[in-house]
Amino acid sequence: MINVQNLTKYYGPKMALNDVSFHVDRREILGFLGPNGAGKTTTMRILTAFTPPSAGIVKVDGYDVFTHSLEVRRQIGYLPESVPLYLDMTVREYLDYAAALRQVSPADKRISRTLEQVDLEAWAGTRIGKLPRGIRRRVGIAQAILHNPAVVILDEPTLGLDPKQIMDIRRFIRDLSGEHTVILSTNILSEVEQLCNRVLIINKGRIVAEDTPARLIARLEGGERIRLQTQHTPPQALDMLQALPPVARVQKIQNNVFEIEFIADSECRTMVAELVVQQGWGLLELRAIDASLEDVFLELTGESEKQG
């Protein structure tokens, strides 16, 4: 559905995107991740034909974003992080206006369906300026899907929503994938793990990873990580743990609590347990720590080094 080849974008002398290539299949939910300033917003603006690329080819359903921008815009619904809403309009008036711009027909039927999809029927007659922040977010989602686009690009769709609204929107996104291609950009990495078929991670204008969430996590889990808690430990405990043969790194989390990484899977927990018992430290907890998409993200973008 989307094909990006060797995409490059400059803002003056600054390179925002550097030779980026990826694809998105039909009816796929793609998670698009990256730290602030990595190039996510620039990529989404190019995909929506809002900003032209400096070099490269970008096609949506076979249409080039540069030479057939109007066709591309018909194919895409976009929820930006900051939605430009008209605060003096009611929700229905705003959707009427959006439907006229999009040449949606029959407009009334489609607006009613959209209000139902995002649970806005009770707010249809309310002026947008009087809506709570989370409800305004749903109005933004409504305008993005109003024309029933083939591709829906959502930038932080659950921003400002309460827990129930978040669950409803996640369920709605899952339903979208039955008929639409979805690109989801969010800082809630658990959301990506729950919703996305595939993940794309961008950093400093380059794609640094592209795979399913499960495979990315498995790739990171080359060895094993465990959490150790004891009743007491001497000052040299960290060095003693670090000296065990398979240990790659030991981090002291707090008093008597350590996080230990191993080079490869082995009888590492047995070795740690034996050391603790031999030294009389008093073993309280010894358990494996599962890797998460957050760990993958921090590792690939270098953010883990900053946190350390």
Structure, explained:
The protein has 308 residues and is of the alpha/beta class. It has two domains: 2-218, Rossmann fold (3-Layer(aba) Sandwich), CATH 3.40.50; 222-289, 2-Layer Sandwich (Alpha-Beta Plaits). Helix content is 36%, strand content 28%. It contains twelve helices and 14 strands. It has helices spanning 40-47, 69-75, 91-102, 107-117, 133-145, 163-176, 189-195, 213-220, 237-242, 268-279, 293-301, 303-307, and strands spanning 2-11, 14-24, 29-33, 55-60, 63-64, 76-79, 151-155, 181-185, 198-203, 206-211, 225-230, 247-254, 257-262, 283-288. The strands form three sheets. It has a six-stranded mixed sheet with strand order 6-7-8-3-9-10, with helices on both faces. The longest helix is centred in the middle third of the chain and has 14 residues, at 163-176. The chain is elongated, with a radius of gyration of 24 Å. 33% of the residues are buried. The mean pLDDT is 89.
Question: What's the structural blueprint in terms of helices and strands?
Answer:
Elements: E1 2-11, E2 14-24, E3 29-33, H1 40-47, E4 55-60, E5 63-64, H2 69-75, E6 76-79, H3 91-102, H4 107-117, H5 133-145, E7 151-155, H6 163-176, E8 181-185, H7 189-195, E9 198-203, E10 206-211, H8 213-220, E11 225-230, H9 237-242, E12 247-254, E13 257-262, H10 268-279, E14 283-288, H11 293-301, H12 303-307
Parallel strand pairs: 3-8, 3-9, 6-7, 7-8
Antiparallel strand pairs: 1-2, 1-4, 4-5, 9-10, 11-13, 11-14, 12-13
